[in-house]
Fold these 4 entries.
Entry 1:
Amino acid sequence: MKKLVLLIIVIFSSCLEKDKFNPELKSELSSILIRDQGFRELFNGNITEKRKSELLKLLEISETDFLENERDIFRKNDSLNLIKIEKIINKYGYPGKSLVGEPENETAWFVIQHSGKIADYFPIIEKAGQKGELDLVKVAMMKDRLLMNLGEEQLYGSQGKRIFLVWPPMKQTDSKVIIWPIKNPATVNTLRQQIGFKNTVEEYAQSLGIDYKPYTLSEVNQMNSAK
């Protein structure tokens, strides 16, 4: 009997939690998230034929159109997503966990992270993290990308970048992907753990297929021929 009462309470609490979300906004953000991640999954190409067919159908494009115009389609999708997210933020502020639940609370983060407007929106992202509306790991990742875009050292080691050793590149060995320089590489794993990352910077680099080395900004600038 006690178990039944407890189950009823859990179900009732879950229903109340869902009721306080904005269903229309949640649905819109879900659609935007699918397009943001779906096009990237297609673009990266490391998927089965079955998954490719599913994504093409979901994104309502033909394989021929994607193969012939993938970069243009990719950029257009990101641009349209950003326009939608900017309108949502202007109306609601950051659409976080208490407004739309999870994982839709990450949609605006993904779209901004993939845009050229990180500097404009990072203060809003940071505040959302402080209020518990967004995972602090996501905030840390955007902070790192902002610093990298500014040509500064990142804090958490979450960002990799392709460096062109020869410009223009003619073969695969003319470039390499590195973990962007970290401000305090000796203590970065402690910082990562404190903020909520589940792996070390070495493990993270390995998951990306990167041979980790703690480069300095000076070393990267000397290596980089695409200036």
Entry 2:
Amino acid sequence: MASDSAARWGRRITYIAILAPAYYDITRIAWLFGIPLGITKELFQSLQDTGGVWAGAALALVSICGAMLTRGLIKPWGEVFPPWIPFMAGKRVPPALAIVPAGLVSIIITVTGLGVVLNFSFSSLQNWGASTPLLLFPIWGIALGAATIFYYYRRQGRCNHCGHLDN
């Protein structure tokens, strides 16, 4: 069935969107714990002195939270609020609650990532931990956008009689 194939592709794309920022997250969290993963001691010291390790860790935490929310695009709790959410438990999740933020974030990540790719310099490979994780941002953004589109189509109502989308 075409819908089964679309559901499989939707899950695969969503997992790509979940895993794509992991490389970025790992490097930034390593720096927070004092491990200069992929960067020179000088850059590491500079990041520590300026608080850059905290900023990187905060962005990694936002990314990890975003990955958990992205998972909702393929899980039941992305369609019906789970029991532990006060006042909303058991109610239908409005599709726009997921589609709008995920769509905006996918655009921002994709545009940012394309800027990084276009301005990438191989001279930055000395600090590969700072530069190369950002090269995955276009993949992350495009995968998140595609996952959002699959979620949108999956959440569209269908007529039980003829199978056409309800409007």
Entry 3:
Amino acid sequence: MPQDNTVQSVERAFKILEELATEKEGLGVTELASRIGLHKSTVHRMLTTLLSLGYVEQNTSSEKYRLGMKILFLAEAILDRMDIRREAHDLLEELSSKANEAVHLVVPDGFHAVYIDKLDSNKTIRMFSQIGRTVPLHASAVGKAILAFADKEFVEEAIKQGLTKFTKNTITNPKELLKHLEIVRKQGFAIDDEENEEGIRCIAAPVFDYTGKVIGAISISGPTVSMTHEKVERLSKDVIDCANKISQRMGWQPNR
């Protein structure tokens, strides 16, 4: 097979996997082909190969395709090599028990932040967030905690990507965002006050490595009915302390 066709096949396979990742219940061949702009026969052929390899599975009754369990093998291999996740988990458990809200750990991924660990609260309400999902840097507490301590050049590039409006509270003005990030730097934590998702409030603090570079952030998130402004203020010290402990495990020295 010519090299160009091989590369094209690989690209198409990943397009299919990425699209399936967005639908928990799976997708039929026709809808999947429409979404990624390929002919049904091409998609069906790719799915047959992915099915035989175990990377997708098919519901026999609905005939829809969804991601297969073998994907977990790849995902776990990536997560296992991420020292920050291993070093942070027990500290996140402590923070979760104190806050009784969802707790997250993220790392930057381009101009987004990706969840690599999550602990739900024991409440019946569950956060929409999940491991592997990304959030925008400018419209999330974890993202703003990262931006506030990132290099100036990176922040400028992030702003150039565009400040998409998600809710009426999203900061979309570059100057306003820069002023906001100054406040985050001074206080050591960031707040997402229904800026990414209506009805959800979060507080986050940055995590640093041994060089002092920001490598991630942790957050406490919950519905506004329980994550009141008073509770956010009360939890600010806890989230900073937890983030600092994780940073120290990663070799960070605060007075360096």
Entry 4:
Amino acid sequence: MTAQLNPRGDVAVLVPAAGAGVRLGPGAPKALRLLAGEPLLVHAVRRIAAAPSVYTIVVAAPATEVEAVRAMLAPVAPVTVVSGGAERQESVAAALAAVPAGPEIVLVHDAARALTPPHLVESVAAAVRDGHDAVIPVLPVVDTIKEVDATERVLGTVDRSALRAVQTPQGFRRSVLVAAHRSAGDALTDDAGLVEKQGGAVMCVPGSELALKITRPFDMALAEHLLTTGA
């Protein structure tokens, strides 16, 4: 039986959490690294569960950690936990297959974006509900971007006004995401990229500074600081 949060919700959230997180240094799988004494995955699921439109959450955990993750998340929220794959795309597909009949809006969220606020979940879901097939939260690119060659010689300056930094959760009509994964060839780390490859339209909504991706030790330190300030 699939765990259920809000019986009136129309959103399923998939959380691929089977990655190793090598850039964060040696240790446990990335989603299970501790942030302020709790795994990143716990922080992420707690915030997802606080979004009122969420009907169910499905986590794809490392194959050897499924029971441990299930027990870890039980006090946080009703969550379905399945075995993830070697690649992110495999984990998303496994989680997608476990979504019950009902929700027609599916969001895919990275556990590494552990401080993502519930209102961003609602914003993405609302845009899909309004008729968009695929929706991504984004932030403007603020740094100067240079194009370089293989020798690190600068070829030119990229116009950043047309660039956006992409976050999660990414939202989809369920049928669109299912079709994209069925047609997937090369593995991608971005589900909206699968939709793009199928010729689908992907729309943007404003992201959140709190939805930063925890990838390096510096990111972990920043997230810890944000938590101490009430994030």
